[in-house]
Amino acid sequence: MRLSLLGILIALPFASSPAHAVGCLSGAVAGGIAGHVANHGVLGAIGGCIAGHAYNKHLQKQQQLQQQIQQQQQSDQKT
Question: Is the pTM of this model over 0.70?
Fold first, then answer.
């Protein structure tokens, strides 16, 4: 468990903004736990951070696209 926490602490600097930190931290926790089971807690936490960051970035892009579509539909209804 100590190695998992160490991995999370190592992964923290890779999170550049608060929004990305959420993805990194949640991924690091999940990866650290999975890595701990396989006796690779630090590697799991770092990999989880990277995967969580990518997933969070993907979700943000989807939300932006949906907002753009809604704005376009609202402007089309006004005209």
Answer: no
